[in-house]
Amino acid sequence: MNQDSNEFLEKIREIIKDEISKIDIRKLSYERCLNNTIVILENYKTLKQFTAQVENVKFSKEEIDQAKEKELEKMMEEVFSSKEVYLESLYKKHLQTRLFLNFLESTFKEYIEKTEISMKPKSELKIAILSEVYMEGKDIKQFLYEHKLGYGRTFYYARNELYEELAVRIFGIYALKL
C-alpha cells in the first residue's frame, strides 16, 4: 500500500507540473496589473477623501498631552490597548495612502503632460476621462452627454487604452503585454 500511495502521489505531482506549465505567468501578471489599475482609478476619489478626512481631524493641546502621557505609559508597560492599536493602524494607513496618492498624482500629472504633447489619436479624450471621470468623480453617463459621445464606443475604447497606458506607469514592466 505504501508503494501504491507513492505512485499515486507521483502521478499527482506530474499532473500538477503539467497544468502549471500551461499557465502563462506573463499574461497573468499583465491582467492583474490592468485589473489593479482599474480598481485604483475607480477608488481614487474615495482614497483622496479618506486622507482629507484624517488630515482634517484637529486635536486640542490637552488631547496631545494625554496622548504623549499614554505613549510613555505604553512604552513602559509594553502593552497595547485596542484603541491605541486602532489609532496607530489608522495613522499608518493614512500615511501609506497619502504616499500612494502622491505617487498617483505625480503619475497622472506626467501622463497628462506627455499625452498633451504626443498628438496621438484620442489623447484629448483620454486626458478628459482621467481628469473628469476618475480624478473629479464625474458620472460616466454625464461625461458621455457633455462630450457628445452617444453610446460611448469611442469612450470605452479610449478608456481601455488609458488603463493600459497607466498600468505601465504604475506597475512598470509587470504591466507590459508581452
Structural class: mainly alpha
Strand content: under 5%
Percent helix, as a range, is over 70%
Order of helical and strand elements: HHHHHHH
Low-pLDDT parts are none
Major sheet summary line: none
Number of extended strands: 0
Gyration radius, to the nearest Å? 25 Å
Mean pLDDT: 78
Q: Rough shape? A: flat
Q: Termini distance? A: 47 Å
Put simply, the count of helices is: 7
List the main descriptive attributes of the protein structure presented here.
178 residues; flat; mainly alpha; single chain
What does this protein structure show overall?
Helix 2 (25-55) packs across helix 4 (82-118) and helix 4 (82-118) packs antiparallel against helix 5 (123-135). The mean pLDDT is 78. This protein is mainly alpha-helical. The radius of gyration is 25 Å and the shape is flat. It has seven helices and no strands. The chain has helices at 2-22, 25-55, 61-77, 82-118, 123-135, 140-146, 153-171.
Question: How are the SSEs placed, and which strands pair?
Answer:
Elements: H1 2-22, H2 25-55, H3 61-77, H4 82-118, H5 123-135, H6 140-146, H7 153-171
Helix pairs in contact: 2-4, 2-7, 4-5, 5-7
